[in-house]
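quick one, 181 residues, struct below
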Amino acid sequence: MRNVLVTGGAGFIGSHLVARLLAEGQWRVTVVDDFNDFYDPALKRRNVSAHLGREDFALHEADIRDRAALGELFAGAEFDVIIHLAARAGVRAAMDYEASGYEVINLGGSRTVSLSELIALLEGELGRKAVIDRRPTQPGDVPRTYADVSKARRLLGYDPRTPIEEGVRRFVQWFSSDGGR
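---
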């Protein structure tokens, strides 16, 4: 078996990756997640709860910026692969943190999607109209975003293939199931 460390492994994307790796049966998976409260920590705990107690799964609640905690983790284990998915969710939350020596690689789709388009996609999948409470521009808000994935493509072979429409559909299916409760 190969050993893999997944940072941010309790989040939406990370927990799906962890489940997939465990289902393959060829991996010992270690997750590091700080369970911060930007999203409901109980939701993240549910994301990994099915794996607790497995011999091929270990969970470490720690902030990846905590050098002592990571030092202890690396002193007790050797990893064949490290998949770094931990990040501050949301622009405003991320504005207060520096990369602290990690190389920053932007992941996203390469097609610009307006907030209005995203809301319309969610409305269509949920079958209900959004109630929009318009507020003044907030720190970190930008009129347009675009993910430059050239560094991720060059360094990681990253090639996003899931159109936003399909991603929103999958997210709504997951959120409407047990995963979102």
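The chain has a mean pLDDT of 86.
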